[in-house]
Design goal:
There is one protein chain. This protein is mostly helical. It has helices at 2-9, 17-27, 53-68, 79-91, 110-130, 132-151, 157-180, 184-200, 204-220, 224-237, 244-260, 264-279, 295-308, 312-319, 328-344, 348-361, 368-381, 388-397, 401-407. The N and C termini lie far apart (52 Å). Residues 6-19 have low confidence and may be disordered.
Length: 412
């Protein structure tokens, strides 16, 4: 031990983290004043559904810090975490009281909740227009710096529930942006915390929407059975407070998952249920955050489904009705599905023309998913690579950032 201390005092080494922390604590000064490196946040542990609201607040605060310190969770998504979270949410009774008390710190009111909501909405608009890779870090910085003190502050039960619901929406956005940027394990962590806070807010509709987002991600990463289960859990869990638009989205998520397993009948039945639900929608009774799911969005989901069950012509028909004109990223995906469907239908010229339209549309996107769609399309083009239209496409697309990024990216 003496040799280790002498080595440190002579500037030849640093004390280990444990000894350095003890020394700093004993002297009552920050580690930096001793010339020690501040210990950085550790990568979060395995994804799991928090046992309580207090555990969720502590864990998500640590997650934000780790994310900003570039120490997010690594590895793959956890199938077990999805199953555990959906089951625990389904069987947990409605919470009668929210533990608040005097936590100290800032006193939180509804004006603070409204501020968080407005800020998150601004970030959501940026995500929609530029992709999850554009402002994702800014969202996490805002949550860590501005929202964490509110969560750990003092508030009444009614304010606490409103705060938890609003932060759950922001966490769902953080999960969505992380997923879109290709950080799948990190996205799963954010979704799990969003589900927990939505539960503590007694907002069953929002919790169901979080499960739907999990289902979307599960389909993308190839966990199709989990994706279908998550969509069904969302549908079952909000049965008492369901709205037609929410049910339409949940049915669509199940259809997407089933289509990837080549379950033609199941996928088409789920799509039919989604269409029937959306036809019954009542705009005055829908949460504002689900109103984006309209006829164009459902057409986009249907186009994906029919593409995946190799019904190219029906995919073309639905993709042609899927352009909203107001959601850049969604329109990019729908356009790429249309290009893919034309290719599968044997119309190579139209496929290449539509793909160029998609590249023009998505020029500002910072989205790993967008790159993945293009990588999948490029792989499909290899079967007809000698076609003159395909050669022209490669030449014209070479100037597009997303196209070149897809060149070295395996499709999912």
């Amino acid at each position: 031990m003496k040799r280790r201390i002498a080595s440190w005092e002579n500037g030849h080494s640093q004390p280990d983290e444990f000894y350095g922390a003890l020394l700093a604590d004993a002297l009552g000064i920050p580690p930096a004043e001793l010339g020690l490196r501040e210990p950085g946040p550790n990568a979060p542990a395995e994804a799991r559904y928090p046992d309580s609201s207090e555990a969720a607040l502590t864990a998500v605060t640590e997650l934000w810090r780790a994310d900003l310190a570039d120490a997010p969770p690594s590895g793959q998504v956890s199938d077990r975490a999805w199953t555990d979270a959906s089951l625990r949410w389904l069987v947990t009774p409605e919470q009668n009281a929210l533990a608040t008390g005097d936590r100290g710190g800032v006193r939180v009111g509804m004006a603070d909740v409204a501020m968080v909501k407005a800020t998150a909405d601004t970030f959501a608009a940026l995500d929609d227009r530029f992709g999850g890779g554009h402002a994702r870090r800014a969202v996490i910085q805002y949550l860590s710096h501005d929202v964490a003190p509110l969560l750990h502050g003092t508030y009444s039960e009614s304010v606490g529930r409103a705060l938890f619901a609003t932060v759950a929406e922001a966490l769902r956005l953080a999960g969505w942006m992380s997923y879109d940027a290709g950080h799948h394990a990190l996205a799963q962590h954010y979704y799990l915390h969003a589900l927990r806070l939505a539960q503590d807010a007694n907002d069953r509709r929002l919790a169901g929407s979080v499960l739907s987002a999990m289902s979307h991600q599960a389909t993308f990463v190839g966990r199709f059975s989990d994706a279908a289960t998550l969509a069904r859990a969302a549908r079952m869990g909000i049965s008492g407070v369901a709205t037609p638009t929410l049910m339409a989205q949940f049915w669509a998520m199940e259809a997407r998952a089933l289509a990837r397993t080549s379950d033609h009948r199941g996928a088409q039945q789920a799509l039919s249920e989604s269409e029937r639900s959306l036809d019954r929608r009542n705009h005055t009774d829908e949460p504002e955050w689900i109103t984006y799911f309209d006829d164009a969005e459902l057409s986009a989901e249907a186009a994906h489904c029919f593409r995946d069950i190799n019904s190219a012509q029906r995919s073309v028909e639905h993709a042609g009705n899927a352009m909203s004109g107001s959601h850049v990223r969604s329109d990019f995906f729908a356009t790429m599905v249309l290009a893919d469907a034309h290719l599968r239908a044997g119309d190579i010229e139209e496929s290449c023309r539509v793909a160029l339209d998609a590249l023009d549309l998505g020029g500002q996107l910072r989205s790993a998913r967008a790159v993945s769609y293009l990588a999948e399309f490029r792989t499909a083009l290899t079967a007809v690579r000698t076609n003159a239209h395909v050669r022209d496409l490669h030449e014209q697309a070479a100037e597009h950032r997303l196209w070149t990024a897809a060149e070295s990216t395996p499709d999912v």
